[in-house]
Specification:
This protein has 253 residues and is mainly α. It is 70% helix and 3% strand. It folds into 2 domains: 16-139 and 226-252, no CATH class; 152-213, no CATH class. Strand 1 and strand 2 form a beta hairpin. The longest helix has 30 residues, at 146-175.
């Protein structure tokens, strides 16, 4: 079970982080995000420490800063939302550079930016050091419902197939002189989207029939059993444990 290709976020390497079993990294990333979210927003120093911890893991994993920062751009919509919060939130207001800003909105924006950025960074590091197939095996090892694991597996396997189908349809439109330049061309794009849905559905039916004819009965065989030693668990949980100490200090100080 799994995908036979590497995803774009994965960075080939032989670092200690790459060598950890996937389910230990999944558990560590989830625990780290939970700790970060549980940290009081007023403890600004704690988030700086979290950033240092993430940077240390990236250094151990040999993930360049540019690679990490480039993929953090995925959170741009959340940044835009956070920037608007001081202007639209209610409560007490303060003047900053001639602008009237909400105090609650400023704290809310900081909360979203700090915790969101750290969560995305942890996810990017996980994806950068773990292949898709290993992620699926890790989810299976963590006893995620088998049906969800299968859905994720099929989505990964056939995402590229659907993307390639979209590319062929785009080339066919362009070869006939079509260019989407305005609202009047939306009808053609809508019809293309409908055709893509029908083709994808039909392909899914054919794939399912092919699987059933080969003995598929609703569950995928386990190709590889992933296990982890106590030392590997200790190394993987070092990040969330260190973050937990920081979080507790943030609540006490």
């Amino acid at each position: 079970m799994g995908a036979g290709h590497a995803h774009r976020l994965y960075r080939q390497g032989n670092s200690p982080v790459h060598a950890l079993p996937p389910h230990t990294k999944l558990a560590a990333a989830f625990a780290f995000v939970v700790v970060v979210v549980s940290t009081p927003r007023e403890a600004m120093w704690a988030f700086a420490v979290y950033a240092v911890l993430v940077a240390a893991v990236a250094a151990v994993a040999r993930v360049p800063a540019g690679f990490l920062l480039k993929r953090l751009l995925i959170e741009v919509p959340f940044v835009a939302f956070a920037v608007l919060m001081p202007f639209v939130a209610g409560g007490d207001r303060i003047e900053v550079l001639g602008l009237s800003l909400s105090v609650n909105g400023l704290w809310g924006a900081w909360n979203v930016l700090a915790k969101g950025t750290l969560g995305v960074a942890a996810s990017v590091l996980l994806a950068s050091t773990t292949e898709l197939r290993e992620l699926l095996l890790g989810l299976q090892r963590l006893k995620l419902p088998p049906l969800l694991v299968q859905i994720a597996s099929f989505m990964i396997r056939y995402g590229d197939v659907i993307t390639d189908e979209m590319r062929r349809m785009r080339i066919a439109r362009e070869s006939r002189g079509f260019e989407a330049r305005g609202v009047r061309h939306w009808g053609v794009l809508a019809k293309s989207a409908g055709a893509l849905f029908i083709r994808s559905y039909e392909r899914g039916e054919r794939v399912h029939l092919a699987m059933v004819s080969r003995g598929y009965a609703g569950s995928m065989p386990v190709i590889d059993e992933v296990s982890a030693s106590g030392a590997q668990w200790s190394r993987a949980l070092a990040l969330p444990c260190a973050a937990l100490v920081v979080c507790l200090l943030g609540w006490m100080l």
